TrEMBL record:
One of its GO terms (biological process) is 'de novo' IMP biosynthetic process. This is 1-(5-phosphoribosyl)-5-amino-4-imidazole-carboxylate carboxylase. It comes from the Bacteria. Residues 142-274 form the PurE domain. Gene3D superfamilies: 3.40.50.1970. SMART domains: AIRC (SM01001). One of its GO terms (molecular function) is hydrolase activity. NCBIfam families: LarB.
Length: 281
């Protein structure tokens, strides 16, 4: 597929593709039109064609190269079920079409090793070793604190924290403060209330998000994990408990969905952070 070209100076100069731009670059194009440095009809044609040029067909996948333009955040690779070779090919394409990191979740050890081999010195992983990224994380705006009930929840909490950082939020973690020892939670109350968004991760009976939400004025995103014994039903008990939270201000992600929680929390924090500081978003 031939990408659509935009024939103006700057990032839209010869050889640039509309599929590789973000909102800031579109704004720059519009500024150039306003300044008389680019023709209106030419810019309009390129922008109208953009949706059809916004993906790359790799044969096994169609990479959404316009997601960052539409949403402010680039596509992320869900590596489960993908071969190491496919994931590396996706990373090469994502690195070519965005200044943000290429990022994969739920990666096997073989996939992580392949990415490190393809991008020596550039690739890095989260604590659990199931998330891998290449490229410098963006500047931060707003603070997300990821709170986990127990050490068995660390993998999901780590995915949430890694994701939130790559999506542009400052991230801090608070671990092992489950409801079996409430004094541990109360000891970090000030830190909880100082965040712009909280991701609260818990398995078993899933009570921690409700307790946290009853103590703070901060949005709480609850993430149930599949940690627990038989009647936890692989996280279903925690999910239902969180959905039935008595405390207001709790939103709930799917079971073990640290990635979705990290994206949501980062977007909340990016919007809330400047307002708390009095800066312009």
């Amino acid at each position: 597929m031939r990408p659509q070209r935009v024939g103006v100076a700057g990032p839209f100069g010869p050889g640039a593709t509309i599929g590789a731009v973000n909102r800031a670059e579109v704004r720059e194009l519009l500024d150039r039109v306003a300044a008389g440095e680019a023709g209106v009809d030419e810019a309009l044609d390129d922008l109208v064609r953009a949706p059809t040029a916004g993906f790359a067909d790799l044969g096994f996948a169609r990479v959404d190269t316009h997601r960052e333009l539409r949403t402010g955040d680039p596509e992320v690779v869900f590596a489960a079920g993908k071969t190491p070779e496919q994931t590396v090919a996706l990373f090469h394409r994502l690195r070519a079409t965005s200044r943000r990191p290429a990022f994969a979740t739920r990666a096997s050890a073989a996939v992580v090793d392949a990415v490190h081999a393809a991008f020596p010195g550039e690739a890095y992983t989260d604590d659990s070793g199931t998330c891998v990224a290449v490229g410098e994380p963006p500047a931060t705006r707003g603070l997300v604190r990821v709170v986990s009930a127990g050490t068995s929840d660390v993998a999901v909490a780590g995915e949430a924290a890694f994701t939130a950082r790559l999506f542009g939020a400052e991230v801090e973690r608070i671990e092992d403060v489950g409801v079996a020892g409430l004094h541990r939670l109360l000891a970090v109350h000030a830190e909880l209330d100082a965040a712009d968004c909280l991701v609260v991760v818990a398995g078993m009976e899933g009570a921690l998000p409700s307790v946290v939400a009853g103590l703070v004025s901060v949005p709480v995103l609850a993430v149930p994990t599949s940690v627990g014994y038989g009647a936890s039903f692989g996280g279903l008990a925690a999910l239902l408990a969180m959905l039935n939270s008595c405390a207001p201000g709790v939103a709930v992600c799917n079971i073990d969905n640290g990635f979705g929680a990290g994206v949501f929390a980062a977007r909340v924090a990016r919007a809330a952070g400047p307002k708390r500081s009095g800066a312009t978003p």
